[in-house]
Amino acid sequence: MQLSKINKDELTDDDIQKIVYDNTYDSGKTCTYGLVFGNSMLINERVNTAVESYKKIE
Fold first, then answer.
1. How far apart are CA 40 and CA 19, in angstroms?
2. Percentage of the chain surpassing pLDDT 90?
3. Per-residue pLDDT, 46
4. What residues does each domain of the chain span?
5. HSE, side-chain direction, 13 A CA sphere, residue 35
6. What is the pLDDT of residue 1?
7. What HEC string does the chain produce?
8. In terms of C-beta density within 10 A (0-12 exposed, 13-18 middle, 19 or more buried), how is residue 50 classed?
9. Which of 1, 9, 20, 53 sits at a 20 to 30 Å CA gap from 27?
10. What is the pLDDT along the chain (58 residues), one digit of tens a residue?
């Protein structure tokens, strides 16, 4: 799936799952940056979870 060819009006939940999770690889190494996905209703909860997760690896 090419992101540049996605029609947002026809985007399905299955398409979103593929974009986010397909072909992912976790080397187990730490990183400098992370992405927090969410919308305005969930962003506070997701950011707090991301911060807690980051603090566990420090």
1. 20
2. 0
3. 84
4. 30-58
5. 5
6. 64
7. CCHHHCCHHHCCHHHHHHHHHCCCCCCCCCCCCCCCCCCCCCHHHHHHHHHHHHHHHC
8. middle
9. 1
10. 677 888 888 888 888 888 777 877 777 777 777 788 777 777 888 888 888 888 877 5
Q: Which two tokens stand for residue 49?
A: 């979870």
Is the CA virtual torsion 25, 26, 32, 34 positive or negative? positive
pTM of the model: 0.42
CA distances from 12 to 7, 16, 18, 31 (A): 10, 6, 10, 30
Tokens of 4: 């540049």
Q: For residue 32, give the DSSP letter.
A: S
Q: Which amino acid is at 18?
A: K
